[in-house]
Design goal:
Elements lengths: L1 H9 L28 H4 L1 H16 L8 H27 L2 H26 L2 H21 L1
GO cellular component, one term: plasma membrane
Organism: Dryobates pubescens (Downy woodpecker)
InterPro entries: FAM107
Length: about 150
């Protein structure tokens, strides 16, 4: 405030640093501008939220506290995750060494089957047809002999 008064004293014309708008002079021909409304502040939900925050502040409630429903839902989610982890750990513990070995063998067999399928896919078409012809000819020959 003291700097402002010093600047007023220094200016010989007596005018302020800030210019005054024309509509303050009281000219009736000019249209006076209206302040635009902020659509966020004008919304009902924002007003209700602001009112609730003021009430909580007056009551002394901390702003960090969450609504009861949100706290309950988070608590349930946390408990559910803990239960799932416990069940997974128990399932791993209950597997006997025999079951683990069976699982390993099953995985090896699956891997071998996949490798055989890949090898069969790389063989030329005429070799596959020739093998099929041999099988059918031996089956037909066995039926005639019997």
């Amino acid at each position: 405030a003291s700097m402002y008064t010093e600047l007023e004293r220094e200016r010989p014309d007596g005018g302020n640093i800030l210019t005054h708008p024309d509509y303050i002079d009281g000219n009736p021909d000019l249209i006076k501008p209206k302040k635009l409304l902020n659509p966020v502040k004008a919304s009902k939900s924002h007003q209700e939220l602001h009112r609730e925050l003021l009430m909580n502040h007056r009551r002394g409630l901390s702003m960090d506290s969450k609504p009861e429903l949100q706290r309950v839902l988070e608590h349930r989610r946390r408990n559910q995750l803990i239960r799932q982890k416990k069940e997974e750990e128990e399932a791993k513990k209950l597997q006997s060494p025999f079951e683990k070995e069976l699982l390993k063998r099953h995985q090896r067999l699956d891997q071998l089957e996949k490798e055989q399928e890949k090898q069969e896919d790389h063989e030329p078409e005429f070799i596959k047809v020739k093998e099929n012809l041999r099988r059918t000819s031996t089956v037909i020959g066995d039926e005639k002999a019997a």
